[in-house]
Design goal:
single chain, mainly alpha, Helix Hairpins, 261 residues, 12 helices
């Protein structure tokens, strides 16, 4: 491969993927639907590499995402739907059209104005609602964040932080009242959803992505819980027979170690 010319290397990679599609029994039988899981998993592996600031791993995972893009484009070309060239041309034109402040004469003062203009340009492209275009497959926390973010662009939002935080307290109280009153699980579920939605809304005011925050907390929980498992293994203890107090001691020690790190 030509290491000096990235375009040549890219074309070589495309040719390799096409050959796999032709000559490999597994690759040959794949479809857009069968590859959905692969694309989703590769996306999350990219996010994990970013979360861990692991650049060697990020390099590898971005390559896997690129493979998926080319693979899907090859399948589409076989079905006479579109080609990889079509994909690149469409995205190129979209970037130019949605960045008139870069490729045109439009003046903007900051990134917020860029985002507002972006949403208006998307509406001109045929979207009927401000909140259209959010994938159904998105994790619920991220989807809530994106919907609230889009609605805020047209002024459907509180002007300051206090009422946003107060809304969390209001929703928690309503949840507690429904639980205490023994309401049906469906009503309790609705109130629980409202609590989560209000917390997501507050995350926007803190400029925190709730999906990222929860993913980091899950990773932190996993690492600390595995310290408990390791302690049980090293000390010939049965995890299920340990008391909560014993587990808490190891948990708190792992928490201190994590904070020091």
């Amino acid at each position: 491969m030509n290491k000096e010319n990235p375009l040549t290397e890219f074309n070589d990679f495309v040719d390799i993927v096409k050959r796999l599609r032709k000559d490999c029994p597994w690759d040959r039988i794949q479809t857009h639907l069968s590859l959905r899981r692969c694309l989703l998993e590769e996306t999350y592996e990219v996010l994990e590499a970013i979360d861990e600031n692991n650049m060697p791993e990020l390099k590898k995972e971005l390559g896997d995402i690129l493979l998926q893009v080319i693979f899907h484009s090859n399948i589409a070309e076989e079905n006479n739907d579109f080609t990889l060239k079509d994909v690149i041309e469409f995205e190129t034109n979209k970037l130019i059209e949605r960045h008139p402040h870069v490729f045109g004469d439009v003046k903007v003062k900051d990134s917020e104005e860029v985002k507002r203009n972006w949403e208006q340009l998307k509406k001109k492209e045929g979207r009927k609602s401000v909140i259209d275009g959010i994938p159904e497959e998105l994790p619920a926390l991220l989807k809530a964040f994106r919907i609230q973010e889009k609605a805020s662009k047209v002024g459907f939002d509180w002007k300051d932080e206090k009422p946003v935080f107060d809304k969390i307290t209001e929703e928690i109280n309503e949840l507690r009242d429904n639980v205490n009153a023994g309401k049906p699980i469906k009503e309790i579920e609705d109130e629980f959803g409202d609590v989560l939605f209000s917390i997501v809304n507050y995350s926007r005011y803190l400029k925190i992505n709730p999906e990222d925050a929860l993913r980091k907390t899950i990773r932190k929980f996993r690492e600390r819980f595995q310290k408990i498992e390791k302690y049980a293994e090293d000390n010939n203890k049965v995890l299920e027979e340990m008391t909560l107090e014993e587990m808490d001691l190891i948990w708190n020690k792992a928490k201190v170690e994590t904070e020091i790190d």
